[in-house]
Write a structure and sequence with these properties.
Elements: H1 3-9, E1 16-21, E2 24-29, E3 31-37, E4 40-46, H2 51-69, H3 77-84, E5 86-88, H4 90-105, H5 115-121, H6 133-140, E6 148-151, E7 154-157, H7 169-183, E8 189-193, E9 196-200, E10 209-215, E11 218-228, E12 232-237, E13 242-245, E14 248-251, E15 254-255, E16 260-261, E17 266-273, H8 276-305, E18 310-315, E19 319-323, E20 330-332, E21 339-343
Parallel strand pairs: 19-21
Antiparallel strand pairs: 1-2, 3-4, 4-8, 5-7, 6-7, 8-9, 9-12, 10-11, 11-20, 12-17, 13-14, 15-16, 17-18, 18-19
Helix pairs in contact: 2-7, 4-8, 7-8
Bound molecules: adenosine monophosphate and magnesium ion.
Magnesium ion is lined by residues 167, 236, 280-281, 283-284.
């Protein structure tokens, strides 16, 4: 596939699709709604006659969730938890429990208590900086899955721990939007959460969507295109957030063992998984774990959770490795400088 063709594919397949219908050509346009929330520009595209009302409901769902999960919003449930050490909220408890479970399955590579370390780096603030080793080790005393507990609808933190759902919230929001759209009889939609994509059903003409996967070296270019339906495609990469100091780039995915940006040999991980929250947290976890750890986690998920995921791993030495389940679905870019390899496992 050429670069020009790839650009035409854009992040997701076109908002317009042409369907031949009884000899006439019927044009079905999707309706797109742009929502600024969770520090991200989200584009929701729904098809069918209920699209408009369903998008209203989806937007409302996103705003409600953001108001609950944003730890920088003093009125949020997460802020209440971080301030008081405990909070009762059924939905937050359910999401936190997923985060904790993925934390455990990943051996702590995913850790939703990294908040104090994130704050020290201040990746999204006005003055990002490199904290000293002493500062990081002092902060790490407050980080750890064992400091987070969920009991029924009650979440509790100990040892000065703070909850940060930044690695899972967007994916969960994608699940919530997909549910709302489906409840309002939308059968075909693209939920673009700032590059991470949730797909409801297939395209209105019944064919699969085409999702472009960004090149971590140049996010305006694509590594290739994935053909998919009814799933989530979520990427964690070095390019998303970060800053540069003295010629070194510091990105926003932290290895909870060191408190520093993870250096696992991977520069990007794309997870294809039917569940948005899991896809999101797993992309972060796999980024920290590296290639071998990611493949081991994939096996663990299949064995212990009956959850099948597919991965596209980009290494810092220019390889793109994708799991065998994507062999028929991932079309590498012809113009990339990467070496593409299917992982036979
Ligand atoms: P993502 O872009 O989904 O990979 O998530 C990155 C965000 O997750 C960061 O902005 C932090 O809020 C949070 N985060 C960073 N490192 C971790 C980690 N090791 N485990 C859990 N959350 C993390
Ligand atoms: Mg994530």
């Amino acid at each position: 596939m050429t670069k020009r063709m790839l650009t035409a594919v854009l992040t997701v397949a076109l908002a317009l699709s042409l369907t031949a219908c009884g000899g006439r050509t019927q044009q079905e346009a999707g309706e797109t709604r742009t929502v600024y929330t969770m520090d991200t520009v989200m584009n929701l595209t729904a098809y069918g006659e209920n699209a408009s009302a369903a998008l209203d409901a989806a937007e409302e769902t996103l705003r409600t969730l953001d108001a609950k999960l944003d730890r920088h919003d003093k009125a949020s449930a997460v802020s209440a938890l971080n301030r008081d050490g405990t909070v009762e909220d059924a939905e937050l408890a359910q999401l936190t429990d997923i985060a904790r479970t993925i934390g455990e399955l990943s051996g702590g590579a995913f850790d939703p208590t990294v908040a104090p370390v994130m704050d020290a780096w201040d990746f999204t603030g006005d003055a990002p900086r490199v904290p000293s080793d002493e500062e990081l080790s002092a902060l790490l005393a407050h980080v750890g899955l064992e400091k987070l507990s969920v009991d029924g609808n009650t979440i509790a933190l100990s040892d000065g721990a703070q909850l940060d759902l930044g690695g899972i919230a967007k994916g969960y929001a994608g699940d919530a939007v997909r549910t709302v759209l489906a409840e309002l009889n939308v059968t075909s939609a693209v939920i673009d959460l700032g590059g991470d994509v949730g797909l409801l059903g297939a395209k209105p003409d019944g064919s699969d969507w085409r999702v472009a996967v960004k090149d971590p070296a140049d996010p305006s270019e694509f590594l290739g295109v994935l053909t998919a339906a009814d799933t989530f495609v979520v990427t964690s990469g070095i390019y998303e957030r970060g800053f540069e100091e003295n010629g070194v780039r510091y990105h926003h995915i932290i290895d909870p063992k060191t408190g520093k940006p993870a250096e696992s040999g991977l520069v990007s991980v794309t997870v294809v998984c039917g569940d948005g929250a899991w896809a999101d947290a797993l992309s972060t976890a796999c980024f920290v774990l590296g290639e071998a750890g990611s493949l081991a986690l994939r096996d663990t998920l299949a064995a212990e959770k009956n959850l099948r995921i597919e991965l596209i791993l980009v290494t810092d030495d220019g390889h793109v490795r994708y799991t065998a389940g994507l062999a028929e679905r991932f079309e590498p870019s012809e113009e990339g400088t990467y070496v593409y390899e299917a992982i036979i496992a």
